Predict the structure.
Amino acid sequence: MTLRGKRRLLWFLNAAIAATCLGSVAALVLVRLDEPDAASLAPAPATAGQAAAPAARKAPPVPYEMIASRNLLQPLYDSVAPNQPPPKPTVKLVGTVVEPGFTYALLKTKDGQVKWAPVGEIVEGAEVTEVKGDSVTVRFAGEMHTLKVEGQGPGS
């Protein structure tokens, strides 16, 4: 095949592809034009002898059903009762070791294990913030609690 023949073949193929694309676009436009519009779907007006039929309401699309059925006057979330006391730490103070460079709290967990905890360590959600001779201050659930050695007084 000569160069001239190859060029003619390419032009023919390009023209065929362009015609196919234009035909597809035209078919889509014609299909859109054939779809009924909102005016043609409206019920015909009632004549003197006919009673007017109630207009059929379309159900909202599926994603909006939950929104449409929700009472918008209710709060968006359930509020926490303000009278509930803050939670108490689950650890108990067994003892303390207070010496320069060696200050630890001996904390008993709810499963009975005793853990050595220096200042800054977290045991069962309670962070040790201060260790004294007979008490330890811990931060638990955002609240500060002072734990006393068991047997010497109640923890608060």
Observations:
- Strands lie at 92-99, 102-108, 114-117, 122-123, 126-131, 135-140, 143-148.
